[in-house]
Each structure stands twice: as structure tokens, then as C-alpha cells.
Amino acid sequence: MSTSYSTWPVVLVPYNLPPWICMKQSSFILSMIIPGEKGPGNDIDIYLQPLIEELKQLWSGVETYDVLRKENFNLRAALLWTINDFPAYANLSGWSTKGRYACPCCAAQTCSKWLYNGKKFSYMGHRRWLDENHKFRFQRTLFDGTEEYRGAPEQTVGSEILFMLKDINFSYGKMNQPPITQKRRRSRDESDDESDEEDDPNEAELWKKRSIFFELPYWEHNILRHNLDVMHIEKNVCENIIGTILNVDGKSKDNLQSRLDLVDMRIRRDLHPQVLPNGKYRLPPSIFSMSKKEKEVFCMVLKDIKVPDAYASNISRCVSFKDRRLYSLKSHDYHILMQDLLPIALRCCMSKNVTSCIIELSNIMKAICGKVLNVEELEKVQDRAALTLCNLEKIFPPSFFTIMVHLVIHLPHEAILGGPVFYRWMYPIERFLSKLKSYCRNKRYPEGSIAEGYLAEECMTFCSRYLEDAETRLNRPSRNAGLNDHDLAETYLFQSYGEPIGKVEIVELDDISWIQAHRYVLFHHDSMEPLRNEYKQILRSRARSRRLQHREINKLFTESFHEWLSQTVWSGKDVNDEIKWLSQGPNRVIKRYSAFLINGYRFHTKYHERMRRTQNCGVVVNSSITSYASARDSNPVEGNVEYYGLLTDIIELDYYGRWKVILFRCDWADVNTARGIKKDQFGFTMVNFSRLIHTGEQLMDEPYVFSSQVKQVFYSKDPTDEGWYVVLRNTPRDLFDMGNGSRDDIVERSETLPFPEQNLDENIPSTRKMRRRRLRGLSIVQNTPNLEEGSSEQQTAVGSSNVPETLDEPEEFQTENGGTRRVRGRTLLSDLYDLDPANRVKVSRNTYGQPVGSEARLLAGYIGILARNANMLPINYESWHHMPDSNKNQALANIKDRFALEVSDDYIKKTLGKKWRDNKSTLKKQYFKKDISLEEKLRNVPPGMLRYQWEDAVRFWNSKKGEDRERVGISSRQKQKFTHTLGSRSFASVAEAEEVKSGQKVGRLQLFEITHRKKDGSPMTSEAREIMEKLKDKKAEYEATASTDSSVNLENIDNRIITEVLGPESQAKAEVQRLRDQMAQMQANTVEQIAEVQRKYEELQRQLRAEAAEREAAAAEREAAAAAREAEHRKKYDDLQLQLQQMMQMFQQSQKPPS
């Protein structure tokens, strides 16, 4: 009740309720009130006896009447755990939370040290939770002056506690306690080893009592019996940090006494106090010390920040510029500071090492306090918590580490045992206690006032449940609930319904805004997909005659689709009523709102909140975009990009009473250039709203989005970088998506950390070990000697011309007008290099021996990287066949170090050759300019290329042989009538995807048709259409013959038809294809049969290589003969030229007059 009067209510919280009801005050049961005026202390067990007896009865079962079913049933209940603050933890559990062994989780294994100057205990020793060989364990001076060899303590289970305390008697009551003797003051000359550490203390003697809860028959089996107070732990930790870094008098843990403790412990000599000539002490600045200017910047960030509605209180009122400190913060204020605002304020005024540790501590608290928890992630959080606390030990003095700071190490484990923290923390309990305190009208009898007020409240709550038509406290929607009328919601498209707030304004849209809003609806409506494809096909057909590029076609489509749709529909095209309504467009007269509620968020326009202390105009939307490498790029790249904006307008489109759509118009930051978005050194996303895109001034702009697409963010102004803002995300309150309980659903609904995870091993120079992570979604195997790798080549068929698709990451491309555009760049595969060396990525194969799956894409990307490595595979060889086997084997071994391959070595080498030739061709196209001299060509060395290799390659390309080979290649490409439409995807991956989709095997004919059609289903060229028809007719002919002639075999019919239509293949190649099909059909053959087929296959492979060598030799002979003939013709031409010159001279002499 006050500092002089203490009343202890005992509240029961039923957990068999939904999460949005469970922790509400209407669900709490006030079971008893322990009277004051002093706290009960250990005597609380006396007051709890009636409750314990009732809990025993509920465990056995109580007969109860069910009004709904009109029958009796046996009601049973159990006490799961207790929720209490940390001092009450000692009264309920029996373990003292003060002194040397104050940690109830570590118990007798608590690591503490008495600080003689600070006159208190310091709880460090967090190195016990690190790996056995971690470097921190052996660093003395950076920690407490000792090396750490102990392991993490194990918590004592309930049965062991009962066994320890079974023969010990405890006395209750103030009169029965032994007399308190005066504590002996510790002597300065006492040895630390003797007085500071007790070897193996008797844990039974450290218990104050045996808790009355052990009388419950199941209590000793509960793993988690009493919860640590997360609310006050977070509050005290944040208060310690703020008080220390701001050097607040009375709150800072860095003072003269703490520095003298460093002297006693013989650690951190650079921080020892220095004695001045006048006898005073000078404290050297520490790594976390802040100057006056830095403190002002810190306070400025917190003073200027605006947070969303219902997010937090107005923290700016607690900031004092004069004193450079924070005043009158509540527990929830510290919660918001710890999890969101403190790292933002420190990032621009504190050293990187300290800021990184505090950011990581913030991430840990954020992960623990999430609505959805993942056990595997919490286990990682446990390791990160240990590492973070160890790094804090290297930064802050020992006096910083109070028992509350130490308890952070146990919070992840309790979250694993008890689940989400919001079921177990003190915030709802503290609010309920505040409400009970408001019932106290008669201060002479406060307990009676609370009881009467609570009973009256319960009676009114009971009666209000029967008032269905009246709005009561129980059925009133929450502050940011949004629209609850489901009938009205059905009239809104794209789930854009919500609840508008404030005054409605009726305005008329201008032409450009009307087109942009209407067009956005048409482009996202599913029923418009066939019509959109139809119009795109029309534009493509027109573009063939006008030679328009893909980007120009998209521009025409964007600008004119709404007009074409309206003209097409109203000209009599057979469409449904929904399309007819949408085709006519919305009414130009629209409703405009200044605030809107949807999905648990409250949004305000930027103009509406200009004078408010809250910020509700920040939005973020994830959108799919199409990126072009240039104006002539015909293969654009699709990708998702997050756009950050400020809400400027909220409009409601009305499709003439049939449909309605809520659209948000925003000022979008330019996320396509580094001048509009960037990441700082800590990984924070920063945006610049002086660089905008999609402003709505041009017809092609898209300033509108659906209200259901956006999520809320808020921005903090960067005081050191003009015009830039840090992005912070907001999570809606009281919004629970229960999902279907699957693991994927849990991952999707898990709350992401607000800040990027900090790598403390990089930030702290003395620590270099880094945990490696497993690649998500890939098959990983241990990197052990694989005895089956040698036989993998004997089980894999190769010979396909397919190359796996590659993984490319976007990069910025400089355009002619000076701007940048995101295009597909070089393969990076940064995740692959983070893989533990003990693991490899397992690459599977299909029945034809081709790599498939997501691992195949990773393999192809890595092969491309090796093919571009000039040191491993030089480019100064005329062809891949001239490349030494040592280089090829080196590349192959490098691949096998990272991948467990089921495909053969020949396939890998063949793919390497294809990538090597592609890289060589790209270099020639970009850097080998024909219109410059040879010397300039030799000097134009590509970045990262060895000069001698480039000079050899240039001389070959510039030679007669290189020019002849180029002409042969150009001639061959000109003869190619068509190509496939897969881009970088392989035939194998397409075939696998089609087989998974259809459930049937994909033959060569079907694969040919799939890979030679456009997105709209039409053949890519007229030649491809003609061949498809021939293939189809030929197959129908064979099927008709087979229906009358049983001797016709249709098993290998695809290969026969391909040969007849596309031309004969070489005998060896056809036999290889037959063997591949045979191996694919073998399911239960013996090892001898497989070996025989493999032997034939290898023999035919050798024959193929011999034929290829013969063809290459014949081509070389033809080139030599052509060169000889050309030399002979040139010689004859020169002779004729000489004869003609002689004749001309003779003719000129004959025309001269005689002298």
C-alpha cells in the first residue's frame, strides 16, 4: 500500500483461456489478502495453508455442474508455477535471494565476490556457460583475474530439495526466531581466497525453510516452480546501463569505490585511479565514458523520438537536457528503452564495442519476450546471452554486475521450460495491484476496502455478461481493433476494410491520381489475370514490327491497360459481372480520411499528426519488382523489395456501390539507390526522405498501396547524418494469429529481432572464434571420408547438354543518365562460406545423373565462381580440351570439399568447361574491342585478370586462327533457328518440377514442348511451332500403329521421334541416351547387370570423345586448308595487281610525245 504499510494479495490466473483473455484482469481470481502492515516474510506459508488445502482438493477432483450441458463433471486443477517479484521469490521458495548465494537457480554454485570498497557482492563468473575451450576462459586480466575451468551449474530438482530438507525443522513466527547478532565487519587484511570463497557449502544449510507448496503431491515434479521476475530484471539492467554510461550520481556503477576494487583485484590497470598532488583521485576515462557532447546527443535522440500510439508513454518528458539524465521512468519505459530505443540512442554517441554488446543484450531480451518462441532459437539465445554477459564483464566494472544482471543468464532456459514470457511476467499483476489499491477508501481498514471493492466489481462483471445489446467493459472493442462488421467487410476488395477515424472529407481525384489508383486495383485483381495476359500478347505481336523492347512494352501496358480493358469489355466481350464493374473504373468523387485502424495498427496521415507527440504515419510494404539491366534487356529479373514511406493520404475508392477499396498514398523513399537507403555499421536500416520515388507526378508512378498490405514502422532522426532516419518496426498489440500449429507456421509467425544480430567476436579484439551456421533449407552431411564417392561415377549417367541454373545476387547498374538500377549480378554465395568445414552440402541427382533440387543451384553457382578463377582455370588456353588435367582435378577437388556429390566427375568437369567458355566469351565481349589497336587491346586488362593470360588470349583472338574460329562460331549461331525459354534454369530442374506437379514422368517430347514455349503458352518461334506439330503428328502416327500392331514398342518412342524429326544423332550419342533410359527404368536389377551396362556406357563415352577429337581435327584441317586457299588466292591477287601496275606504266609512257 505504501512504504509504511504492506498488503499482499494472492491472485490465481486460470491458464485454460485464449492468450488474448488469459492475462486480462477480468480473468484474475483474488483468492485471499494477507494483511499488513508488514510483509509476511517466511511466515507466508501460514497464510497459504487454506489455499494449499483447496489446491489438494482440486488435484483429486471436485464435482461441478456444467450449465451448458446440464450435467455434473469432475473438475480438476493443478498449480503450474508462481509469478512474483524477486524478493517474494525467497518467501515462496525458501531460498534466500540475498547475500553470497543470492541466485536461486545456481543455488550453492552461485559465483560471487565481495567488493570491499563497494561494500556489496558482485555476481560474475558467466564464463562457466561458454564452451570448454573458449578463449575467454583463459583470459585473466580482462575478467576477474582468474582462469575459469568450471562448467555451468545445474539447477537442483524438486525431489532432491525434499530429500535435503526432510530431516530439518524450521520455525515460523517472529517470536520463535533466534536472536540476531551483530554482523562482523570484514577485515581488509583477510585473504580473498579464505573469506571470499567457500569450498562446497552444504546446500541444505542455505535453505531458510521447506516451502509449503511441496505439500502438493505434484510440486516436486514441476521443473519450473517459481518464475524469475523478467519485468524487474529488465528494468534493473537497463537502469544500471543508463546510470553508468551517463555517470548519474548515485546510479552509476563506475565510481571511485569501483575503481579501487579493480586495484584490489589486480585487473585493468589502465582504469586504476590516479592520485593527484592535492591528494584527490583522478579516474581515467573508460571505454563506455561519454563526453558532454555525446550525452547531449544521447538525450536529444530520446527527446525528439516519436513512437506509435499505444506503443509506450511519452519518454521525452523524462529527458532532462540540463542535467543530461533521465527522470521518473516507469518499468514499461525501461522495457521500451531496453528493447528498442536504447540501441538507437547509443549508436551515434558510443564506441562500437560497447554499442554492439548493448544491441546484442537488447536482441536477447527481445527474443525472450516474443509472443511466439522457438526452442531451437532459444538454445542459441542461451549461448548468446553467455557471450554477451562475458563481453559486458570486459567492459563494465565488477560493481555493475548485481544479482539482477546475473539473472539474465537464466531467462532463456526458463523461456524454454515455461514458454512465452507474457504469460509469466509481472506487468499484468502490477496493473491489477494498482487497481486493487484504488479500491482503498478507508485507510483504517485497507484490506476490507479492497475486499468490498473487488466483490462489487465481480458482481457488476457477472451482471454485464447478460447485457448483450449494451456496450460494456467486457464486449467493448480494443483501442486499435478496427472494423468488426463482417457484412460490411465483404464489400471491400483485397481485405482492405478497417475503421476510419475522425472527420470524412469528400474530394474529387485528378486524372493522374484516378488512373494510378484504378490501375493499381486492376493489376492486383485475380480475375484480371487472363485479360492482362491477353493484352500483353497483343502488345508483343505489335512490338515485332516496331522492334520494341521488353521495358517499352511494359510501359505501354501500364499506361494503356485500363483503356483497353474498358474498350474490350464494353465492345461485347464475354466476361463476368465483376470484371464489368471493375472495367468502368471507380467514382472520381472519393472519401478521404486522416486516420485509419486496420490489422491492429493505427495509422495517421503525416499532416494529421504534425502537432502530435506520436508517430503513426510510417509504413513499410513488401513489393515484387521487375529490374532491367538496360533499356534493351529482354530478360528482366523479378524480386521482392521493402519500400519505406510516410503516409500522406487515405482514400476510399467506390466502384459505384458494388465494391470499395481503401488505398494509402505515401511518400516513398528511393530504395533503388544508396542515396535513398543504406545500412549503418551496426546493420540498422536508414532511409532518406529527401530522395523520393513514385511521387505520383508521372503517369507511370505507383504512389498507392492497399491498406491491408502495409505494416507500421516509425523513424528516429539521425543527429549525426542530416536527412537520414533509422527504421524501427512496430508489432500490433492484442493481435494473435493462432495458425495451424505446424513448424512452418511457427517460423512464419515468430517475431523478428528489431536489430541485426551483432557479432561480438569481431567487435571485441580479444575474441576471434565465430560460430558457423547451417544453411537453411539445404541437405547437409558430415565431411567424413566417403567410401562410396569412388563408385558414384559408376552409378551416374552423364552426357546431357544441360547445365544447372546459377544463383545470382542483384547489384546496382549505372545507367546512361547517371542513375542506378538493380540488375542480376555476380554469384556471391556468402552463405556457403559460412558453412562449418565439418559439413558439406549434399547434391542429389535424378535418374539421368543430373543434379536437381536447391542444392543443384548452389552447386552451379559455385562452379561458376571457380570457372571465373583465372588462377585455377587460366583463360589463355585455346579450348577446354587444352586445359591441363591438373587444373581440372584441382577444381574438382575444391568442389568435393564443399559438396557431397552423387553426380559423376565427368559431369562436373563438363559443367566447368561450359562455365569457363561462357566466362571467356563474356570477357571478350566486354574488353576485346575490335575498333582499337592491338596495343590498346593488350592494355585493356579486365579487373582481377592476370596480364599474361589476357595478353595470350588477346593475341589468339587477334590472330588469323582466332578470327577464323570466330567466323565459324558466328556461322553456327546463325544456323540456329531457335533456342529454349528456360534462361538459367536447367532442363533437369524443369523436368523434376513438372514431374512433381503432374505426378508423371516427363519424356523428351513433353520436355521439348515445355522448354520452347513462352509464358503465355505460345511457341517461341514459327520454326518451333512447326517442329512441335511434326513431333505431335509423328507420335500420333506411332500410337495409331501400336494400337493395331502389337510388335511396335512405345517404351523408347520419344528418342526415335526426336531422331526422325530433328535429324539423326551420332550412333554413340544415341546409344548413350538409350542406356540412360535403361538405367532410369532399372529398379531391382543385380549389381552384375548394372556393372555390365556401366561398362558399355563407359566404352561408348570413350567412343564419343574419340569422335569429338576426330571432328576437332577435321575442323582444324578444314581451317588450315581454307587458310592455304586464301593465301593462294591472295598471292594470285597480288600478282595480278603487279601486272596491272606494269601495264599502266607502259601505257603512260606510250602516251608521252617523243622528245
TrEMBL record:
It holds the Pfam family Transposase_21. Residues 368-480 form the DUF4218 domain. Residues 174-203, 780-825, 1112-1134 are annotated as: Disordered. Residues 190-203 have a biased composition (Acidic residues). InterPro entries: DUF4216, DUF4218, Probable_transposase_24, Transposase_21. Residues 792-804 have a biased composition (Polar residues). Residues 651-727 form the DUF4216 domain. This is Transposase. The lineage of its organism: Eukaryota, Viridiplantae, Streptophyta, Embryophyta, Tracheophyta.
